[in-house]
UniProtKB/TrEMBL annotation:
<dbReference type="InterPro" id="IPR005714">
    <property type="entry name" value="ATPase_T3SS_FliI/YscN"/>
</dbReference>
<keyword id="KW-1006">Bacterial flagellum protein export</keyword>
<feature type="region of interest" description="Disordered">
    <location>
        <begin position="1"/>
        <end position="20"/>
    </location>
</feature>
<keyword id="KW-1005">Bacterial flagellum biogenesis</keyword>
<feature type="domain" description="AAA+ ATPase">
    <location>
        <begin position="194"/>
        <end position="377"/>
    </location>
</feature>
<keyword id="KW-0547">Nucleotide-binding</keyword>
<keyword id="KW-0066">ATP synthesis</keyword>
<dbReference type="InterPro" id="IPR000194">
    <property type="entry name" value="ATPase_F1/V1/A1_a/bsu_nucl-bd"/>
</dbReference>
<dbReference type="InterPro" id="IPR020003">
    <property type="entry name" value="ATPase_a/bsu_AS"/>
</dbReference>
<dbReference type="InterPro" id="IPR003593">
    <property type="entry name" value="AAA+_ATPase"/>
</dbReference>
<keyword id="KW-0282">Flagellum</keyword>
<keyword id="KW-0653">Protein transport</keyword>
<keyword id="KW-0067">ATP-binding</keyword>
<dbReference type="InterPro" id="IPR027417">
    <property type="entry name" value="P-loop_NTPase"/>
</dbReference>
<protein>
    <recommendedName>
        <fullName>Flagellum-specific ATP synthase</fullName>
        <ecNumber>7.1.2.2</ecNumber>
    </recommendedName>
</protein>
<dbReference type="InterPro" id="IPR040627">
    <property type="entry name" value="T3SS_ATPase_C"/>
</dbReference>
<dbReference type="GO" id="GO:0005737">
    <property type="term" value="C:cytoplasm"/>
</dbReference>
Length: 474
């Protein structure tokens, strides 16, 4: 039987008719390789406020799409659906969109096979990928990875997912090393650990941007990643040119999504800044992530959630806002044992200096400490205006010596006792000798105030800060 089949195949291969068919099929195969695949598209049925509705496509939440217009393309992202209707949030203005405009899905740009240690099976792995790598240092990009500084293209082939897989909390290295941030009040009283996540709580105009600039310039970190989310455009340029400065900018990657950016771009900017920091952490580097501000990120999510019909819950914030905050914050921190770290500072805008603002309250619960800036101190010329009574570093007790903790606690007690009795002292109602602790607080008040204040161009290292703290009580 096998010999008969072999004989038939041999005679068939010499048949001219069969040869012509094989040649024809080879030509068809070549032509098919040049043909473009059929492009599926949907159409826009409604544009209302911030949201566009589309029918005719089956896309997952988080998928990207483009809408051609007379002046170019509008990029959008699927943020929800209802039945067969998709809700799209554009990354730019919707001017030029007409009824029935076509909507084309965008295939996510995946990294080459073998460049990631796992298969691309999960949604995080199939999410949008944006440029990362050393070429971003010294550059300013927007939330979509496009350069804003006029210095040309980024010239990087490395890309990273916007939403990376979360790190198993049991695999994270513990916080055990101190981090010198160059600010005396923080080094001595609110010592920061490498891999810690802190919130900077402040109202408007009390000096949080200046304090962030000091931290960025003086911190011992391999790489600094700055996310300016929802800030005024003037503040973005001022922070980069004046507060960050040339030396800080040289080792920094800046992601700017100012207040006039669409809410989706502001959300994406925060995720992108975190993705850049994660990329450097995975390379074993110690990264400083500064995000200004977490409140604007929450407001962007509130705009999107309300636009697609999610009901408001707490002071106008939908539940998804409070679900997204820990997802973003938990991406920072230490990596695997022996690897890199991300030490993060998130600014939280306390509206009307209200520390019970829902975003401030939620952030306080998910961060490893909070530094509160006080408006009364700023008005009195006390800079940085850190209120050491309300501020706390939750990692300080595990990374500092017992003597350091005792000295910090002693200073805090004297400072707090003086502040509570300030009115009595000012009007002369306090009689010296009636309270020994208050007598010591009055005697030390001048040197304590001087210790907690610091000029913007003064770098107070951690050893210097501890030495000055010890000398206060010797």
């Amino acid at each position: 039987m096998d010999e008969h089949q072999h004989h038939q195949e041999g005679t068939g291969s010499s048949d001219p008719h069969t040869g012509r068919w094989k040649s024809f099929l080879r030509d068809c195969d070549t032509l098919v390789s040049f043909a473009d695949p059929m492009q599926v598209s949907g159409r826009v049925t409604r544009v209302a406020g911030l949201v566009m509705e589309c029918v005719g496509l089956r896309l997952a939440v988080g998928a990207a799409a483009t809408i051609p217009t007379a002046s170019g393309f509008i990029e959008a992202e699927v943020v929800g659906f209802e039945g067969e209707r998709l809700f799209l949030m554009p990354q730019s203005d919707t001017e030029g969109v007409v009824p029935g405009s076509r909507v084309f899905p965008v295939e996510s740009v995946l990294p080459p096979p073998g460049t990631v240690p796992h298969g691309r099976r999960r949604p995080q792995d199939r999410a949008r990928h944006l440029p990362v790598g050393m070429q971003l240092l010294g550059r300013v990009v927007d939330g979509a990875g496009r350069p804003l500084d006029g210095l040309g293209p980024l010239n990087t082939t490395e890309v990273g997912p916007l939403n990376a897989r979360p790190v198993n909390p049991l695999d994270r290295a513990p916080i055990k090393d101190t981090l010198d941030v160059g600010v005396r009040a923080i080094n001595a009283m609110l010592t920061v650990g490498r891999g810690q996540r802190l919130g900077l709580f402040a109202g408007t105009g009390v000096g949080k941007s200046v304090l962030l600039g000091m931290i960025a310039r003086y911190t011992e970190a391999d790489v600094i990643v700055v996310g300016l989310i929802g800030e005024r455009g003037r503040e973005v340029k001022e922070f980069i040119d004046q507060i960050l400065g040339p030396e800080g900018r040289a080792r920094s990657a800046v992601v700017a999504a100012p207040a006039d950016s669409p809410p989706l771009l502001r959300l994406q900017g925060a995720a992108y800044a975190t993705a850049i920091a994660e990329h450097f952490r995975d390379q074993g580097k110690n990264v400083m992530l500064i995000m200004d501000s977490l409140t604007r990120y929450a407001m962007a999510q509130r705009e999107i959630a309300l636009a697609i019909g999610e009901p408001p819950a707490t002071k106008g914030y939908p539940p998804s806002v409070f679900a997204k905050l820990p997802v973003l914050v938990e991406r920072a921190g230490n990596g695997l044992e022996g690897g890199g770290s991300i030490t993060a500072f998130y600014t939280v805008l306390s509206e009307g200096d209200d520390q019970q603002d829902p975003i401030a309250d939620a952030a306080r619960g998910i961060l490893d400490g909070h530094i509160v800036l006080n408006r009364h101190l700023a008005e009195a010329g006390h800079y940085p205006a850190i209120d050491i009574e309300q501020s706390i570093s939750r990692a300080m007790h595990s990374i500092t010596t017992h003597e350091h903790q005792l000295a910090a606690r002693k200073l805090k007690q004297l400072y707090s006792r003086y502040q509570r009795s300030r009115d009595l002292i000012n009007v002369g109602a306090y009689a010296a000798g009636s309270d020994p602790v208050l007598d010591q607080a009055i005697a030390k008040n001048g040197v304590i105030e001087e210790f907690l204040c610091q000029e913007i161009h003064d770098n107070a290292t951690l050893p210097q800060s501890l030495g000055q703290l010890s000398s206060l009580f010797n």
